[in-house]
Prior knowledge:
Layout lengths: L1 H11 L4 H21 L15 H17 L1 H15 L10 H12 L7
Amino acid sequence: MKDKQAIRLREIAPRDELEILIREAHASVEADLALEDAGWINLSGQTGDIITGQERIINLQLSRLYSLKDPLGKQAIRLWTDYTFGTGMTSHSDEDTTEEVRKAFWDSKANQSV
């Protein structure tokens, strides 16, 4: 009996219209993005956001190849690089310990170009 009452209460309870609208909008956007992505090659080889170091190097090599072979590919890579990194980056700290940590991070082999 309690199960039937709980089900009935859920059926007649007011729903959060904003949440429903957000879910519908999100589903619509996902469908639109899937249509836009049709025919394109996923360079990462996976659907997740995590890219291993080896995959990053492979993607870098592919982007260099596309930059040489395709003028539009070169333009896309140039735009991405310019807007992501700009003309460079500098940092400085007045505190010695903070500056040492920053310098160690900046000079780390993991942060050097491939």
